[in-house]
Amino acid sequence: MPGFLLHQGALVLCFHAGQAQPMVPNPRVKVSGQATVTQAGIYSVTGCTLPPPLASNGPCVTAQWITAATRIRSGGMPLLLQDSQAICAPTGTGLNIVVTQLRVRGT
Fold first, then answer.
1. Percent of the chain, pLDDT > 70?
2. Sequence ranges of the domains in the chain
3. Maximum CA pair distance of the chain?
4. For residue 23, what is the enclosing H or E element?
5. Looking at residues 77-95, what average pLDDT do you find?
6. Do residues 103 and 15 make contact, with C-beta atoms less than 8 angstroms apart?
7. pLDDT per residue over 27-39, tens digit each?
């Protein structure tokens, strides 16, 4: 099923409400005037509320995407979709894609 392409201005949060942003957006493909993101792009996470070690294994610091589009690529790398999945380090939890652009879909 098609999902909307993820872009640099999308609202992406870790499971503990930390803000996630792409470290290296993909300037070759833009949607709604903003760069998209490929699966290889690492996200940095700030403001994660999970307690640090000794109380927990948090907070989330980075996230790596494990799923992406199967048919849309840029520079040989799959683009991220609204239903793409990621794993945060060091917690092993995921990211929530809360808001993204609503014009371009992909599979």
1. 99
2. 3-93
3. 45
4. none
5. 96
6. no
7. 999 998 999 999 9
